[in-house]
Specification:
Elements (H helix, E strand, L loop, with lengths): L1 H6 L1 E2 L2 E2 H35 L3 H26 L7 H34 L7 H29 L5 H17 L1 H16 L7 E4 L2 E8 L3 E5 L5 E5 H5 L3 E3 L6 E9 L5 H16 L4 E11 L4 E9 L4 H22 L16
Antiparallel strand pairs: 1-2, 3-4, 3-7, 4-5, 5-6, 8-10, 9-10
Helix pairs in contact: 2-3, 3-4, 4-5, 9-10
């Protein structure tokens, strides 16, 4: 019996060699099934019970993608000692490589999409941004599969230089044809990741200003103060200098007033302090300075600089209005006259 097992051969391998290969595969498969049953299943239940979403995902994805690769490894090791024909050996190696690439890429893509869902999509409630990241995911998936297919062909010994050159030329042609669209699309991602502004911000771009209402894949839309909608290509916004008032913590205000040259010198000395007291008396302001700044063509000039401790424009206008009214009131009490354009004409008899 032993002689039959060791000496009787099929395709250069004895019956014993085939039996050992089969036994190795059966024992290895049984061992993997035990691991799955007593370890992975219990670990999956624990993750589900503790609501460990990432751990649960890794376990499920591992069972679907990595476990088949381990079975493939057991199979490959079980037939490794067998003597196979070059043709059959090449078929098995190619099949194993194809399965390795397929399950490996599928696991990496599943991990990438999971990270994208967890860290990005769940933090975004805007439909446009969620859609944009879905586009990124699909583009990345297609790119990875193409690269994996090229690597697979290269390992099979296929000449891929012509294929790579063709893909490069095709990519250049597509990029040139969609240059404007791609420019706006990449500018959208620049806006999203760099966040120079967001929906709800009030921004000024060149001579235009408005509140950001929508950031799309190609254009961004603003609502101006006069009510009309302003539409900007994303590429224009990323290449322009813009001012964003959302991050402004306080607003610096400077204004000047003029009083008549006939104002008494004692009152002129008091005016800077009068203006300073008016600003300090209003909540939400911080005085910077108040000075008699110089002599104008027809008035004595006084300059006041203060801060409004909010970025709200309406609040600033309310405060400035209150300051103006109090200036009129205080000057009226002291008999200080505001200046206005005047000319004095002197006539001399001949």
């Amino acid at each position: 019996m032993w002689t039959i097992l060791t000496e009787y051969k099929f395709f250069q391998n004895s019956i014993l060699d085939y039996l050992l290969a089969l036994a190795f595969f059966i024992v290895g498969s049984w061992f993997l099934r035990m691991i799955k049953k007593f370890f992975l299943t219990r670990l999956g239940r624990w993750a589900k019970r503790r609501k460990k979403e990432l751990a649960s995902f890794l376990i499920n994805s591992g069972e679907q993608n990595l476990l088949p690769l381990i079975y493939l490894g057991v199979f490959y090791l079980s037939i490794h000692r067998l003597i196979l024909t070059p043709f059959l050996n090449k078929i098995i190696n190619s099949l194993c490589l194809a399965l390795l690439v397929f399950f490996g890429v599928r696991f990496l893509l599943a991990l990438f999409n999971r990270i994208l869902d967890y860290y990005l999509l769940k933090r975004e409630t805007e439909a446009t941004k969620r859609y944009a990241f879905r586009i990124i995911s699909k583009f990345f998936t297609i790119l990875v599969w193409i690269l994996a297919f090229i690597v697979f062909l290269d390992n099979l010994g296929v000449e891929i230089s012509a294929l790579v050159a063709g893909l490069g030329i095709g990519g250049i042609a597509v990029a040139l044809a969609a240059q404007v669209l791609l420019s706006d699309l990449f500018s959208y991602f620049t806006i999203y990741f760099d966040r120079p502004f967001e929906v709800g911000d009030y921004i000024i771009v060149d001579n235009f200003s408005g509140t950001v209402e929508h950031i799309g894949l190609k254009t961004t839309r603003l609502r101006s103060l006069t009510g009309e909608e302003l539409v900007f290509p994303n590429a224009d916004l990323t290449s322009s200098r813009l001012r964003n008032y959302k991050t402004m913590k306080r607003r610096r205000i400077s204004f000047t007033i003029g009083v008549s040259y006939q104002t008494d010198a004692a009152l002129v000395k008091e005016i800077p302090q009068i203006l300073a007291d008016i600003v300090n008396s209003i909540p939400g302001t911080e005085l910077n300075r108040s000075h008699f700044s110089g002599f104008g063509e027809y008035s004595l000039r006084f300059e006041v600089v203060y801060y409004v401790l909010t970025r709200d424009y309406i609040k600033y206008m309310d405060i400035q209005q209150e300051i103006n009214l109090k200036i009129i009131e205080e000057f009226s009490k002291r008999g200080i006259q505001f200046s206005y354009p005047t000319q004095t004409l002197y006539l001399k008899n001949g």
